[in-house]
Amino acid sequence: MYICLCKSVTDHQIRDAVNNGATRMCDLRRELGVATGCGCCAEAAQRELDLALAALPEPVFGAADQAA
Fold first, then answer.
1. 27 with 19: CB under 8 angstroms?
2. Which tens digit of pLDDT belongs to each residue from 36-61?
3. Distance from first CA to last CA of the chain, Å, rounded?
4. 10 by DSSP, 3-state: which?
5. Nearest of 32, 61, 12 to residue 24 by alpha carbon
6. How many domains does the chain have?
7. Buried (b) or exposed (e) across 9-47, using 16+ Cβ within 10 A?
């Protein structure tokens, strides 16, 4: 689904950006150009960012990490 019509950014692109390390709107702006045109998509982009971040797997720590 298109999130930003001005820059043709989709929800899939936002999820891919999150999977590649994006964690904030400024990351999406820099990488995808989202919310840099008219700005109407900022709320939807933030919502999609939050959903993508929530869907990330929890980090797995080794025994050495847990002892600290």
1. no
2. 999 999 999 999 999 999 999 987 77
3. 43
4. strand
5. 32
6. 1
7. bebebbbebbeeebeeeebbbebbebbbeeeebbebbbe
Helices (H) and strands (E) in the chain, counts: 4, 2
CB 7 within 8 A of CB 36: yes
The CATH number of whichever domain residue 49 belongs to comes to 1.10.10.1100
- Residues shown for the chain: 68
pTM for the whole structure: 0.83
Domain presence at residue 7: yes
Domain extent for 17: 2-56
